[in-house]
Specification:
Layout lengths: L1 H12 L3 H4 L12 H15 L5 H7 L12 H28 L3 H11 L18 H14 L4 E2 L4 H7 L2 E2 L3 E7 L5 H14 L4 E4 L5 H13 L3 H6 L4 H11 L6 E4 L10 H11 L3 E4 L16 H19 L2 E7 L23 H6 L2 E7 L4 E8 L6 E8 L4 E5 L10 E2 L39
Parallel strand pairs: 3-7, 3-8, 4-5, 4-6, 6-7
Antiparallel strand pairs: 1-2, 8-9, 9-10, 10-11, 11-12
Amino acid sequence: MVQLQILNKVLLSKDISLIRNNDITSDMFAPPYNNYCDFILNHFEQYGNVPDKETFLSKFPDFQLVQVTESNNALLDLFFEEQLYNELVRVVNICADKATSNSNEAAEYLRSQLPKLQVRTSKTYVNIISDAKKRLAEVEAKAQAGSECFIPTGFPELDNTINGWARGEEFIVWFARTGQGKSWVLVKSATHAWEVGYNVGYISPEMSSNRIGYRFDTHYSHFSNADLLSGRINLDEYREYINGIQDKPGKFIVAVPEDFNKRITVSKLRTFVKDEKLDMLCIDGIRYLSDERAGYRDNMTTSLTNISEDLMSLSRELSIPILVVVQSNRGGVKEEDERGTPELENIRDSDGIAHNATKVISLRQTGPGLEMGIKKNRDGATNVKLVYTWDIDTGIFTYIPGEDDVNTIRVSGHNNSNSSTTSRRPNNSKDNHLANVQPERKVFSDVTSPF
């Protein structure tokens, strides 16, 4: 009945906005109403107006004219609920058929269809003048929350520029060529977020959870990563550290492709974030995600654009920042004497990734150290360069101010009141030539935030 009511309201009011402004198409109507809708839309496209009832009835003499008094919103809500029911029945029937032979395949199909089974209601546009108090309430909430509106990046100088990772509507892209330190930087940012009290999820398509764990240990407490990998570590000291860290609050959850049945999708990530109650999600390689909206002939560019759109939507939906690592193409290679990090056009395979991102930061290793370039910042300054010396083995980043930089030299990973870069690492290493420049390890029984 609601389909008949919508068509009558359009015909009798001669206003097509009820259909066009709500993305209603003829294939959303059951026969014969789909033919009626097609005629109205085609007439409007050709002549610029809704056909009058005489013209319409001459084409469809059996059509029933009725007076409609329901509001547009009431009609739309009922119409979309009916659409959801029909689609749900279709999906459930297909799942039931697939489950008779392979329940895993049925579950995968169901997950892939979940984005289509979204509750849809009439559109509620916002008048930013009459509804201005909604913005006031949001700003007041931010003022009360203070710095809690953002998750610190792990790099104080970067926080000075971008405030940190916003808690919602935040899709961050780190990109560089292979071997420039993307994954290391991602683990450092994730480690610091955990350290200051947030639950972090880390998707690791290439490395095991233990490998990510070793990098965490290096960033958090500056154990030699080489010694951890080789087993040359001081076992008593490492055992004490492990026993102490297990009592710390918060989560750092590492998931690998096998945890997602070797097919990582945005729908599965949504479940992962909700189940683990995560505050931040890190993805070490966007190319490892599967596009749930992929068509038969879609290429990698289209798929990565779809995935980045879906990740941005997920960030808005769950109010968490999502960080991804992306490879740059060969055009992003810079020789040591060339200036600058890779540009946005050097992102491999898809312009859509940068288009959907709120922040894009490129990386490269240069003579002085690791250089970061802020290439996109939807809410602030761009073309900002930050350079750090970086001891990859112990996870120490020391900021190098530029000529006009007001920041003082700081060691990322230490309390700002202590600017010294002199410290130590475990002296059990057979190769202890860096002993005089290694970081002092934290006291595990009472660890405080370095920032």
